[in-house]
Amino acid sequence: MSESEDRKPQRARPSLFLERQSYRRRRLMDAARLLPILGAALIALPLLWPNQTSPEDGVPLSSAMLYIFACWVLLIAVSLVFGFAARRMSARDDSEAESDRWLP
Predict the structure, then answer these.
(1) pLDDT in tens, 35-83
(2) Residue 43 CB neighbours (<10 A)
């Protein structure tokens, strides 16, 4: 027996290709899951700012509060964008699945 006969091709590995829509939907879900962690990191950032022991040191409280409010508004806006994108992707998936049911 030769070596080429011993090396029979084994079962072909399944393709790792994912559909574009399902891949995008999964990445969107991953990003939405990381959003609270990003929000906690952004809101905790003022804790690293130096204390205001003298007027020229540190960051004024009004600036810190403005920063936290801006982060809060930004997180709400990003959540809305994720929600609208997820709704749009699910609407596309539903319409495609419905059209596939009527094919002969």
Answers:
(1) 999 999 999 998 888 876 776 777 888 888 999 999 999 999 999 999 8
(2) 14
Identity of the amino acid at 43: I
d(CA 64, CA 61): 5
Q: pTM to 2 decimals?
A: 0.63
Nearest alpha carbon to residue 19 among 76, 96, 75:
96
DSSP of 27-84 = HHHHHHHHHHHHHHHHHHGGGGSPP-SSTTSS--HHHHHHHHHHHHHHHHHHHHHHHH
